[in-house]
Write a structure and sequence with these properties.
Elements lengths: L1 H13 L11 E12 L19 E11 L4 E15 L7 E18 L6 E22 L2 E23 L6 E15 L1 H4 L11 E16 L1
Antiparallel strand pairs: 1-2, 1-8, 2-3, 3-4, 4-5, 5-6, 6-7, 7-8
Length: 218
C-alpha cells in the first residue's frame, strides 16, 4: 500500500498540467487567512506586564504577477489585517491593543515546477506597512487610552502550493504560509502616558499568516 501511494504521488507531481505556467502570463490572485503575533507590543504597564499587539487576526490580500519566465513572476502585493490583542477573560480591569495593518509591497514569486499539476512556490516582497494601534489599559490602578499610526519598512517571505481548477481555464487554488515583519514606534503610544506606562521605542513586530489563495491567469 505504501508503495502504491508513493507511486501515485510521484506520478501526480511529475505530470504536466493542462494549464501550465508560461512566459508572458498575468496572474491575479486573492487570499484570506489568519495571522498570529510572534511577540508583544513593547508597551509595558507594570514591571512585569506587557501589552499584546494582536493575539489572532484576519488577513485579506490581493496580488498581481507578470511571469518573466515560467519560474519567475514580478508584481505587487496588497494586504489588510486586523488583530485584536486582549486578555482571554474580560473583567472590570482589562488591557487590550487593537491593531489595523495595511501592507503595500513590491513582490516576486519563484515557482519550482511550473509545468506540473501541483506547483510549489516561494513568494517574497518588500515595501511599506501602515499600522494603527488602539491601546486601552485599565489595570493595577492605571487608566490609559491612546490611538496612534506609524508607517515603516516591511517585508515578507513565504511558501505555498497550488493546483489547477478545471481544464485550461487559468484558475488555480492553494495554501500559503508567510512570515511578515514591520516596525512600530511605541513612543507614539506612550507619549504623555502615566509613569507606569512605557515603551521600547522603534520596535520590530512580526506575525505568521496562513492563507487560502485563489488565482486567475490570462
Amino acid at each position: 500500500m505504501k508503495k502504491l501511494i508513493f507511486t501515485i504521488l510521484a506520478v501526480t507531481l511529475s505530470m504536466p498540467a493542462l494549464a501550465q505556467l508560461t512566459q508572458g502570463q498575468h496572474m491575479v490572485g486573492g487570499r484570506l487567512g489568519l495571522g498570529f503575533q510572534l511577540e508583544n507590543s513593547g508597551v509595558s504597564y507594570s514591571d512585569h506586564d506587557r501589552v499584546d499587539w494582536g493575539t489572532l487576526g484576519a488577513e485579506y490580500g490581493l496580488s498581481y504577477y507578470y511571469l518573466l519566465t515560467p519560474h519567475i513572476g514580478l508584481g505587487a502585493d496588497l494586504s489588510y489585517a486586523n488583530f485584536d490583542g486582549g486578555e482571554l477573560f474580560e473583567s472590570n480591569e482589562d488591557v487590550s491593543n487593537k491593531t489595523n495593518l495595511f501592507n503595500a509591497m513590491l513582490s516576486a514569486r519563484l515557482t519550482a515546477n511550473p509545468s506540473n499539476l501541483v506547483r510549489f512556490y516561494v513568494p517574497f516582497g518588500l515595501g511599506l506597512a501602515t499600522a494603527q494601534q488602539d491601546i486601552h489599559i485599565d489595570k493595577h490602578g492605571t487608566h490609559y487610552d491612546k490611538k496612534a499610526t506609524d508607517t515603516s519598512f516591511a517585508w515578507f517571505i513565504g511558501a505555498g502550493f497550488e493546483f489547477d481548477l478545471g481544464r485550461d481555464n487559468g484558475w488555480s487554488m492553494g495554501l500559503e504560509a508567510r512570515y511578515n515583519t514591520f516596525h512600530y514606534d511605541t513612543d507614539k503610544l506612550t507619549r504623555h502616558a502615566p509613569a507606569t506606562v512605557s515603551g521600547d521605542g522603534n520596535r520590530r513586530l512580526s506575525y505568521m499568516s496562513f492563507q487560502l489563495r485563489v488565482n486567475k491567469r490570462f
